[in-house]
Amino acid sequence: MERLVIRGGRRLAGTVRTSGAKNAVLKLMAASILANEPCLIRNVPRKISDVEVMIGVLRGLGVKVDWEDPTSLRLDPRGELGFHAPDELVREMRASIQVIGPLLGRVGHARVYQPGGCVIGQRPIDLHLKGFAAQGAEVREEHGYIEVIGEKLQGAEIHLDFPSVGATENIMAAAILAEGTTIIRNAAKEPEIIEEQNFYNRLGARIRGAGTDTIRIDGVESLNHREIDYSVIPDRIEVGTFMIAAALTGGDVTVQDVIPEHVEAISAKLREIGAEVTRGEDSLRVLGRGRPKAVDVTVLPYPGFPTDLQSPMAALLSVADGTSIITDHVFEARFRYVDELLRMGANIRVEGRSAIVKGVPRLSGAEVVAPDLRGGAALVLAGLVAEGETTIYGTKHIDRGYEEIERKFQGIGAEIERVID
Ligand code: EPZ
């Protein structure tokens, strides 16, 4: 059984490089469906499994996908495309539903199996579907499939009940070739949305406002562009994971290839727990100073503290001096990792959307199972400070979003290895 084995107690030091942002890359790959000419996407995290799954989904729809070099992906959507995304891949990865918006624009029809992905809450897709319906699409949910049909969509004014990242992206994509203007209010403001706006505009779309809560998409008759060459932003969640690891181990780590503004909320929290965070142009240095202080963390949509770093932060606070309360206002049940941290000696109680973390002086190594992607990352961090050996099963979850996590941590002094037998 594949597992990560960590011997805790090493102080992390040195420089680690960030990969391209998973949650941007996956959407840009889906966006290529709307292109007329091939798109080259650079800085792609090749070794994360979600990228492999998205390649499979796109190939299943008829897009030609090839690696041009180890981190550059060439997507050629010319020719006829299908509308039915491969069921077994959609079941594996929720981000597959992001092909619906681009498919509507391109072929006027999308059929997608009810998506899978990390079990971190209910994760409905009603906001996506309401958006498509407002744009005049016919939406059907039957026999486990979501079917969206709309040859020529109409611009619409859409107010999202919650600033959902996926719904904002999907509605934005569907609006690009619609007739008239679409306005999305209470839109998600994540940096990944700006990235998509920039990419689509390079294809010839007319989108403004990404990064604010109101996005305006003026529909265009057709997209007109030459071959695209686009480099993806660094993964702010991976950056945050290394920052937290540095603070947790009392280390001195420089994270290279960073857009510091994207991780302001994390930098601020780490300063509160007593770490020193110094900003470079495209790097951040984190210096851990003694036992972390307890702090409360409120998880909110961007620019708030990100839900994807809620569990890594809980690993840190589990050894803090005092009691911390973490409240997640994005996903209501993203606490499955807590049982595993308890096995390692943490003292955490979950009450509704909150985790009450009573800091203990030390964690102890144990055999644990990654329940989901970021929960798995939290266990790795806990293993780095625990006394003795920690074995983490369920590595496939971690590999969905972190590229060679063991190699990167080894590079800054961690004693961690992957065992496959
Ligand atoms: C994206 O998921 C990310 N995934 C998630 O990262 C991230 O945690 C999340 O945004 C929030 O930042 C990708 O980009 C592939 P949402 P998404 O729609 O788009 C509710 C990771 O670990 N909601 O913003 O699915 C939903 O249930 C992953 O890398 C509805 O109610 O997130 C949740 O409570 C996990 N109806 C909240 O909104 C809908 O139609 C936010 O979800 C859509 C969402």
CATH topology of the largest domain: UDP-n-acetylglucosamine1-carboxyvinyl-transferase, Chain
Q: Would you state the CATH class of the largest domain?
A: Alpha Beta
What characteristic shape results from the CA principal axes?
globular
Strand content: 25-35%
Biggest sheet layout: 4 strands, mixed
| First and last CA, distance | 6 Å
Low-confidence stretches: none
Can you name the CATH architecture of the largest domain?
A: Alpha-beta prism
Structural class: alpha+beta
Q: Indicate the radius of gyration in whole angstroms.
A: 21 Å
Total count of domains: 2
Q: Helical stretch count?
A: 14
| Corresponding CATH superfamily of the largest domain | Enolpyruvate transferase domain
What is the number of E strands?
Answer: 23
Ligands, ions, cofactors: ligand EPZ
Q: Strand arrangement, largest sheet?
A: 21-22-1-23
Q: What's the multimeric state? A: single chain
How much helix is in the residues? Answer: 25-40%
What does this structure look like?
There is one protein chain. This protein is of the alpha+beta class. The chain has two domains: 203 residues, Enolpyruvate transferase domain (UDP-n-acetylglucosamine1-carboxyvinyl-transferase, Chain), CATH 3.65.10; 210 residues, Alpha-beta prism (UDP-n-acetylglucosamine1-carboxyvinyl-transferase, Chain). Helix content is 31%, strand content 25%. The chain contains 14 helices and 23 strands. The strands form six sheets. Strands 21-22-1-23 form a four-stranded mixed β-sheet. A four-stranded mixed β-sheet has the order 2-14-16-15. Strands 4-5-3-13 form a four-stranded mixed β-sheet, covered by helices on one side. β19 and β20 form a beta hairpin. α1 runs parallel beside α2, α8 packs parallel to α12 and α10 runs parallel beside α12. The mean pLDDT is 96. The structure holds ligand EPZ. The site of ligand EPZ has 26 residues, from α1, α5, α6 and α12. Ligand EPZ binds next to α1, α5, α6 and α12.
